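Hi Prof. W.,

I finally got the HTH araC/xylS-type domain-containing protein prediction working! I wasn't sure whether to trim anything, so I left the full sequence exactly as given:
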Amino acid sequence: MFHAQIVDYAYPLHAHDTWTVLILDAGAIRYDLDNRHCAVSGGDYVAVLPPGVVHDGRPAANAPGFRKRNLYLDPTFLPASLIGSAVDHTTFRDGPLRRALARLHQVLDADEDPLNAEARLAMIEQRLTDHLAAAPSTSTRPEPQAARALRALLDEHTVQAVSLAAAARLLDRSVPHLVRSFGQAFGISPHAYIIGRRIEAARKLLLAGIPPAEVAITVGFCDQAHLTRHFRRHTSTTPARYASVTGSRAASI
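And this is what came out:
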């Protein structure tokens, strides 16, 4: 979760490796999602931003700012095949969905019974899937060849990752088309793929005795904290502990 009140600030272009579901408690926000001009205000509106797609964010022209609640959901929470639809149809007016999201934030913030959160999350998943699956997409069908070409490009730039905008120019495709094609072919977003490749490279370097801080920079993470966050998500442990435990086992053998 992320709760914030934004005044006189504009988010730069960036992308998440998660599904991001946003509701506003006050004000209004404008954002560009892959060159589509989008907006959302309070009331019953819900915004959905798919993983791997570049966007920005700023207060709407007629609003002094906005107060928002973001929910970040694992990239596998919704099928990758829905990414294109989420780009084309990023906002919905759905009162029950909006209220379910608001209540889920309260449940998580209060650290209530996980079963309560799971039940609400299941309802949210179903309503989001229904919206996105029913929404007509203006984008072309997924293209396996484009997905393979993007994967090859990502493999060549694991450390200094190529941006999706640059990849789209090189491959003469749109960003949503590439993201949707990649997700359809491989089941994950391009960003998640790059993170996975970096984690695998980090494992090998850690086993070779390279310090975690050096490993982080070598494989393309900003710093050791960035590596640790993703490494723990992938392996359930920290880089330092992974290296020490596997190292001690190798010594005992």
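The radius of gyration is 20 Å. Does that look reasonable to you?

Thanks,
D.
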